[in-house]
Amino acid sequence: MTLSYKEVKEDVHMIISSLDNEEREIPSTLHSLKICSIVPFVSVLLNAVTFVVVCALANGRAVFDLNNIRYLFNDWGALPVYAAIAIGIAQTLLFVTQVTLYFSVPNDVRQKSLVLSKVREKLKNFLIIYFGLILITSFISTYSFMWVFATPAIMFVSIFIINFIASIEVAKYGLTPVLTKLSAVCSKI
Fold it and tell me: ∠ CA(156), CA(160), CA(165), 5° rounding?
């Protein structure tokens, strides 16, 4: 469904006017952190499991032997997993402000908004591609060890891609006034 400028203008006005309501709830930073940490957590978990499986298969050991897992993570041999953890923390911290701003908009307005539903759809499509790539590289890494470094690389690149997509959507739908209003409202808190 294609939106007209009139629909976008009305939608942006609806979002901005909803922010003037002083009765709305202040978004929880902890809730935003939880939401932001889901994708990095799943990515790190997939990377860690893949790393353990690849190392176990390469050494002829049992895949989920506790001694093997402890051995793998005791030294810097698990560098791909450590890199994924560091990038996952960076992802969480970089996106928490955007998610908090999103949750600053009242829930009923978020559900009604055509523009925000378009942005959610774009994000959903990106996450499907993101997890698809991580699953593919996890599978390929069982054949070639160097592919275990692909998950941290995908996680790192995704930071820029998500910010790029967000910037394009803000420019495309003219959401700068909404972001300005949200920033002003959040700075008062």
Answer: 135
- Burial of 176 from C-beta contacts in 10 A (0-12 / 13-18 / 19+): exposed
State how far the Cα of 103 lies from the Cα of 105, in Å rounded to an integer. Answer: 5
pTM of the model: 0.84
Summarised one tens digit per residue, pLDDT across range 97-140 is 889 888 988 888 889 988 889 889 999 999 999 999 999 998 89
DSSP state of 47: H
Tell me the one-letter amino acid at 126: F
- Produce one character per residue of 80-96: b if its CB has 16 or more CB atoms within 10 Å, e if not: bbbbbbebbeebbeebb
In contact, 62 and 25? CB cutoff 8 Å: no
DSSP 110-160: HHH-HHHHHHHHHHHHHHHHHHHHHHHHHHHHTT-GGGGGHHHHHHHHHHH
Spatial distance between the Cα atoms of 81 and 49, rounded to a whole number of angstroms: 9
Residues 132-178 pLDDT 10s: 999 999 889 888 888 889 999 999 999 999 999 888 888 887 777 77
